[in-house]
Specification:
mainly alpha; about 70% helix; single chain
């Protein structure tokens, strides 16, 4: 090995350290997946805050009901969807597998299930809107069912990608723990 100003070790040209400079692929993947999941969690928090604001405005009657409609029933259990995201964030610093698994399971229960219920709850109103052109609930002049279906579609994609990346992250963590056990 070569030092900055000193002599080189005998029998080397200073380039034999390259193989020790690489980071193992599962560590690189872990960092990249954590970054993607954090981005998705931030998008989820943004959606969550919008729904929370709509619920507060609707219940506290800060704006008239023709401006912001009362929330649909699926929005109440969806407020619990912040818990899986927090569990996911808590799993990152020390690669805590149990927190990540709990986050994935509770994402299905508190995030995906209310979205499915919401799509089914709003379907008759969406049918009425598109067949007859009648909407009874509005959010800032737009049909509430259209706006909330858009929220459901975006949230379903966010949670779907979050689950996909969490599974890949879990696999990369299992790879690293298996390699540690072999040593």
């Amino acid at each position: 090995m070569a030092s900055r100003g000193g002599p080189r070790a005998t029998g080397t040209d200073g380039s034999d350290f390259q193989h020790r400079e690489r980071v193992a692929s599962h560590y690189q993947m872990s960092v990249a997946l954590k970054s993607e999941i954090k981005r998705l969690i931030y998008v989820h928090v943004g959606l969550w805050l919008l729904l929370l604001a709509q619920m507060c405005v609707g219940h506290l009657k800060l704006l008239p009901h023709d401006r912001v409609a009362m929330p649909y029933q699926w929005e109440y259990p969806y407020l619990l969807s912040i818990l899986p995201s927090l569990l996911g964030l808590l799993s990152f610093p020390r690669n805590n597998i149990s927190y990540l698994v709990l986050s994935m399971i509770s994402t299905g229960l508190f995030s995906v299930a209310p979205l499915i219920y919401g799509a089914m709850e709003m379907f008759p109103m969406a049918q009425q809107l598109y067949r007859h052109g009648k909407a009874y609930r509005f959010i800032f002049g737009f049909s509430a069912v259209s706006v909330m279906y858009l929220v459901v579609v975006v949230a379903a994609q966010v949670h779907g990608w979050q689950l996909y990346y969490s599974k890949k992250l879990l696999d990369s963590w299992f790879t690293s723990t298996q390699e540690k056990k072999k040593k």
